[in-house]
Structures are given as C-alpha cells and as structure tokens.
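Sample intake sheet
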Amino acid sequence: MKWRLTGRYLFSVVLIVIIVIIMNIVVVFGLFAYQMLNDDFLKQQEEVSAQSIARSFSEHIFMTEEGVSIDDSGKQLLQKNKAWVQILDENGQEVYRYLAPEKAKTKYSPVDVVHIYKYMDEDLLSTVFIGEATGSNTRYSYVLGFKAPGLERMVFTFDVQSFGQMLKMFSLTLIAVDGLIALCIAYIFSKRLTKPLLLIIDSIKKLAGKNYNVHHKPKGVYKDVFHNVNHLSHELKASEMERKKLDQMKEEWISNISHDIKTPLASIQGYAEMMKDREYQFSMDEMRDYAEIIEGKSIYLKEVIEDLNLSTRLKSKELTLHKETVNIVSVIRGIVIDTLNDARYSNRNIEFQFSDEVIPLEVDQILIRRAISNLIYNAIVHNDEHIVIKVQVEKKESGTWIRVQDNGKGIPEEELDRIFDRYYRGTSTGELHKGSGLGMAIARDIVIAHGGNIQVTSEIGIGTTIEIKL
C-alpha cells in the first residue's frame, strides 16, 4: 500500500504539472491564434477598404493629350469610401485632384510624402496611401487619402529596456497564474486523497471510544487500510464479547469457589472450636478423626490456592521451566499409580499403555505431572465409577503423543469449546472433587509452555479423548 500511496501522490504532482503546461500552451496558442485572426481580419479589412483600393486605383487613372484624369468608376469608388486623390508628376507637382482637402499641398517633396504616409497630417485628417501610375513616357504618383475615422496606420517603436521589463512582468504574472492554477488543482486532488484519511481517523476515534460498529467498503488507494480497520473492529467486538463472557464466568466461578471454600473452612472452624472447648472431653481416636478431617480440608484449600497461583504465573508467562531429560513412560506410570493409591479413586479402572519402555523427553517433570494428573482427574470427576480410563504414551516420528481416553458420558458440543477456559467447571462434575475450575486451563497452559499442543474430541455416550503432542 505504501508504494501505491506514494505513486498516487507522484501521479497527482505530475498530473498537476502537465495540466498547468497544457493550460499555458492553450493560452499561448489562443493568443497567437487570436492575433493571427485579428491580423488577418485587419489585413482583410485593409485590403477591402483601403490598401486594395490604393493598389488597384491606377486602373482608374487614364492619360490624354489634355492631361491626367480618373474615370467615372474611380470617382464613384472614392465617393463611396470617403476618399480623395491627388496625382503628382515626377517632380511632386500636383497635376490632378479629386475631392482633396483644400489644405492639401499642391507640391510634395519626398520628405512630405514620407511624412503624410507615416503620420496623420493635421490639415488632411486622413490615412494616406501612395501609389504609382505609368503612361507611355511618363510616371505619375498618386496620393490616396481616406477620411474614415476607424482607419489608422500605426508605426510601432519600442525601447529594449522597457520591453525587458514588460517581459519580466508578463513572466511573473504567468508564474503567479500558474501557481494559482496549481494550487487549485492540488487542493482538489488533496481533497480526494485526504477525505478517506479523515474517515479512517474518525473510525479510529470510534474504536478508541469503544464503539466497535465500524465498517467501511474497502476501495481506492486506502483499500488495505479500510480492510484492516474493519478487521480490527471485528476483532475488538469479538474481544469485548469474550471479555464480558469471561467476566461473567469469573463472577460465577468466584461465587462457586467462595461457596466451595466456605464449606471446608466451616468444617475446620467447627472442629477447631470443639477441640479447644474445655467442656468437651474427646478420646484420642476422636481427636485423630477430627485432625484428619481438618487436614483433608486444609489440603483442599491448599490445592485451590496453588491452582490460582500457578494459573496466574502461567498466564503472565512468569513461570520458568526447569527442564530435564526424563523417561516420560516412568513419569506417567507413577501418576497412574499415585491416582489409584488415592482412597477417593481406588475403585476406578485406569489402564496404562505405552509403545516403548523408554521414551526420553526433555520436560519440567513437576509441571508435566501436574498437567497429566489434571487430565486424569477430569476424566474421573466427570464420569461414573464403572468407566474405563486409558492412559497411553506413544512414540512417533512426529513426536511423543500422550492420550487420556475414557468411555464415559462424553462432553456436550456447547461445552467442548469451553473445556480449556479459565474458571470453567463442567456441569457433570461429581461431588468427590469440586476443584478450582482451573485444572484443564492449567494443563493446556503447561503443554503450550513446553511448545506442544493439546486437543480434545468427544461424543455423547461414547467417551472423550484428550491428546497431547510434545
């Protein structure tokens, strides 16, 4: 997207330059065309009304033995165009005139001819053209004047320094106009480029204000940005929903765990008060029984506290693994034996299977024991006494696989996705072990901390299989 955005800006700059150049060319050509058309028009007008008449007027001059004169059509032409004529001999002496002003000279020197041709004489008040007519042996000149007020001849002279200043002013004006045009075009393009940015900034403000109902159609040069904003909005909305769900679960868990903690605390407090009361006389056997109950309740509370501490450290990744190479078969065999030696689960049917007698694996032995124990206890507390639990260790090319499988009730589909959630306790938990609700989450976090993965499959009425790959 960075290159596309840069390219869009470069394209805009180049396009602005091209447009300004084109507009300059159009203006120059327009002025040139206007000048050409104006010159052609003036020339055409001059040729029709003055210059063409002056050039061809010799056709109307005829010479006789009596002198020089003009024909009737020439006279009509002069009357029609408000013109007059003087015919001069080779010495500049007038030999014929028609409609000429009274103040017109009768003899012209070469300087006089040049003067009346270049400048408008105050006495004549006419625009003058000079022509020539030739006879058999004589050459005559004629002065043809036009009294039309709109017809003028201009003699152009200029100063180089003044022309330079004028050119400088023209250049500065052109640059200013080009700058203004470029600024206007740049504003239009920048508006098109910045409008989506304003929309993106507004969307980010909404997301920052916890308004996650943001969605835009990805298009234009910012298509990827809009797509990512939409994705971020979706993720934040999902995270917010998950947070609310987790908060609700946490509240439920706190309520449940508070109730579970109060029960052993009440027992501990009750037996302790009885034992310290001097009015009661207990036998040694009774004291041992009460002490055993207090010990059991204390162990339960200790396990809950340890679960909370371990879960917090795993979640914050503050727990350091103390890895060592162990025979994972011996470790899991010991877990199965310890579980069966527990009086609460001594009647359970737990089978242990392995592919090799020795499968070396580098792990934190204490944490792996905790994870596998949690999975076995989970299979016990969620099923009846008659179910069979199979614990398997298998060495494959892809790694070491550990399975805890049972043929019990199975896990409903709506609970299957939540089995590894923190604070979640299944609806079918038995009375033997309420637990902290963190056992499965702790098992998952321990496996992930070792770089492995864990997955669960289950069918109602058939059983559940949990697989760990390390």
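Comment: The first helix runs from residue 2 to 49. The radius of gyration is 57 Å.
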